[in-house]
């Protein structure tokens, strides 16, 4: 049997679809120039394969990931496994699906590209679960749907998708909490726990109802009752994988899916995987296949095509193996895909002036005070946005309205007298103390100057632009109303007491959001808008949920709706009731 390499495609090249070349391969963040840092060197097997005939060349040039490789034939299959359901991806969205399928007693197999289940993230999320209502926490359905639509500029998402998540998230969380409690763990709502993350806005000094926000995160609690506010986040994905296996699910690690099997316009009937020794295994699925392979942030060429702004974000991503495998396999058999993707981005990663993170662990992710709602300007020295945008909100203007995706925070030495008394002291991302300020000064992620002119020289601002913007900002502070961006007045403090401080920060993307178009039953749609039989998608592999921005004011939507939708996909496969 020929291996992928003998067919002219290494496994990695087959999955990524094209070499990382051209504008998407590297990103320049230094100052306002177009200079770029070199992309990581390609591995030894990252040779560029032929991608098609002359008939496919125009499409290949623009979107090489859409060009299907030659079908793997039955004589190349080393093993065939018949089952009811195949879950492609043992991550955040695939694991709840595998748990439910196993719990229902069906023959379910989980195939995973990596050597283990996916990493646990900070939380899940949902609405009006028992852990909410027992504390008299209630969310309004209509208000949530309207806000989600408007916050995300929901031009390609469906309002019905938001309603589907809202209605079913409570039952999903109740089910998940019961399983966690049976294992000695638990879940707790953010409002009950009281833990605040950097700039989540709600309940913090300077939060303004001008910016709609939902503190909808639900944290995992370990066996000692500790949670993220005490620096503890249980290995909850491991608990999920264990529960699925205990109930009969079979996991295949280091076994990436490489092709779906579809006969013409018929249903998808199987998925072909490649094991560690290069043999192909065919999984026939009688009831359905769920694509839950994550996002495509690790394929920068693909990411840049679907959202050019995301190329201004740093390359720090949650899962480096997420190269859009599920998206590509779906496209190869006729699935449709969202016109653009948005990113799950964190806005204030502190860097040196040449965009480096300091060595060692003395600096937090965010530099001291730089993520607070102080004056923020772009690389020219021009004020950028309302600095009290909650949670991840400041990411959006940084990657859409700046030349380079960077911004600079400016404050002065009278911060202790000027900041509100209850300003956030810090969390797992930041530490806003005088001691941390000194550490960050030494590490080169904060700079100090005796004059604003000197500060402009250090940061590389256009001096005239910067000084005019500081003057305008100070005038607004004196008037007590931010007529330019309507930041809350409690944070309108003038920059007038030397020495002055400046800190550069960039956006860090954790994943892309958007993917294969689905209906409200999580079935993948073809280009005519019709469901492809036997094929489902959830999490970051699925689309039809977000607009052109990840809704930064609704916390935990990616994990929350991804888990719930994977769970609902299995319910549809099995004919179970959903709301």
From TrEMBL:
Species, as recorded: Adlercreutzia mucosicola
InterPro entries hit by this protein: FAD-dep_OxRdtase_2_FAD-bd, FAD-oxidoreductase_2, FAD/NAD-bd_sf, Succ_DH/fumarate_Rdtase_cat_sf, TAT_signal, TAT_signal_bac_arc
Record flagged with keyword Cell inner membrane: no
A Pfam family matched in the record: FAD_binding_2
NCBIfam families the UniProt entry points to: TAT_signal_seq (TIGR01409)
Regions crossing the membrane: none
Gene3D superfamilies found in the cross-reference section: FAD/NAD(P)-binding domain, Succinate dehydrogenase/fumarate reductase flavoprotein, catalytic domain
Region Disordered, annotated ranges: 35-68
Biased composition (Low complexity): 49-63
Top-rank lineage group of the source organism: Bacteria
Cofactor(s) needed for function: FAD
GO MF annotations, alphabetized: steroid dehydrogenase activity, acting on the CH-CH group of donors
Keywords: FAD, Flavoprotein, Oxidoreductase
Keyword Protein transport: no
Name recorded for this polypeptide: FAD-binding protein
Ranges for domain FAD-dependent oxidoreductase 2 FAD-binding: 84-551
């Amino acid at each position: 049997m020929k291996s992928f390499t003998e067919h002219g495609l290494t496994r990695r090249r087959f999955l990524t679809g094209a070499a990382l070349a051209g504008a998407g391969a590297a990103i320049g963040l230094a100052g306002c120039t177009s200079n770029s840092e070199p992309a990581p060197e390609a591995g030894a097997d990252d040779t560029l394969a032929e991608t098609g005939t002359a008939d496919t060349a125009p499409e290949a040039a623009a979107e090489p990931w859409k060009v299907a490789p030659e079908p793997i034939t039955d004589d190349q299959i080393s093993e065939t496994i018949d089952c009811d359901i195949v879950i492609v991806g043992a991550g955040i969205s695939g694991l709840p699906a595998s748990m439910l399928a196993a719990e229902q007693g069906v023959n379910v197999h989980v195939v995973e590209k990596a050597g283990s289940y996916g990493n646990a993230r900070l939380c899940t999320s949902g609405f009006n679960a028992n852990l909410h209502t027992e504390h008299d926490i209630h969310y309004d359905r209509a208000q949530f749907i309207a806000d989600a639509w408007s916050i995300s500029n929901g031009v390609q998402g469906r309002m019905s998708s938001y309603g589907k998540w809202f209605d079913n998230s409570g039952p999903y969380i109740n089910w998940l909490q019961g399983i966690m409690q049976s294992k000695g763990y638990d879940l707790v709502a953010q409002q009950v726990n009281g833990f605040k993350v950097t700039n989540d806005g709600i309940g913090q000094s300077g939060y303004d109802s001008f910016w709609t926000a939902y503190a909808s995160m639900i944290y995992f609690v370990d066996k000692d009752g500790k949670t993220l506010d005490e620096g503890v986040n249980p290995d909850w994905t491991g608990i999920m994988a264990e529960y699925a296996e205990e109930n009969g699910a079979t996991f295949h690690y280091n076994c990436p899916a490489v092709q779906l099997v579809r006969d013409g316009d018929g249903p998808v009937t199987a998925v072909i995987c490649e094991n560690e020794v290069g043999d192909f295994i065919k999984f026939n699925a009688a009831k359905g296949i769920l694509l839950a392979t994550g996002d495509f942030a690790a394929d920068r060429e693909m990411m840049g095509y679907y959202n050019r702004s995301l190329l201004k974000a740093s390359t720090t991503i949650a899962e480096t193996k997420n190269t859009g495998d599920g998206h590509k396999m779906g496209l190869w058999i006729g699935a449709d895909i969202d016109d653009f993707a948005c990113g799950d981005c964190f806005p204030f990663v502190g860097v040196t002036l040449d965009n480096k993170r300091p060595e060692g662990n003395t600096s937090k992710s965010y530099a001291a005070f730089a993520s607070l709602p102080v004056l923020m300007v772009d690389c020219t020295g021009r004020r950028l946005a309302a600095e009290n945008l909650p949670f991840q909100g400041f990411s959006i203007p940084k990657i859409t309205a700046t030349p380079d995706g960077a911004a600079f925070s400016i404050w002065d030495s009278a911060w202790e007298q000027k900041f509100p008394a209850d300003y956030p002291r810090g969390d797992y991302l930041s530490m806003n103390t005088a001691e941390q300020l000194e550490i960050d000064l030494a590490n080169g992620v904060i700079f100090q100057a005796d004059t604003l002119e000197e500060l402009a020289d250090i940061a590389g601002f256009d001096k005239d632009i910067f000084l005019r913007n500081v003057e305008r900002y100070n005038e607004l502070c004196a008037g007590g109303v931010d007529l330019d961006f309507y930041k809350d007045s409690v944070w309108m403090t003038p920059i007038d007491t030397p020495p002055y401080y400046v800190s550069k920060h960039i956006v860090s993307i954790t994943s892309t959001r958007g993917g294969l178009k689905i209906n409200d039953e999580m079935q993948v749609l073809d280009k005519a808008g019709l469901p492809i039989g036997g094929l489902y998608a959830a999490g970051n592999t699925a689309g039809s949920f977000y607009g052109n921005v990840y809704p930064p004011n609704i916390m935990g939507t990616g994990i929350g709706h991804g888990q719930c939708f994977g769970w609902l996909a299995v319910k549809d496969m099995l004919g179970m009731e959903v709301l």
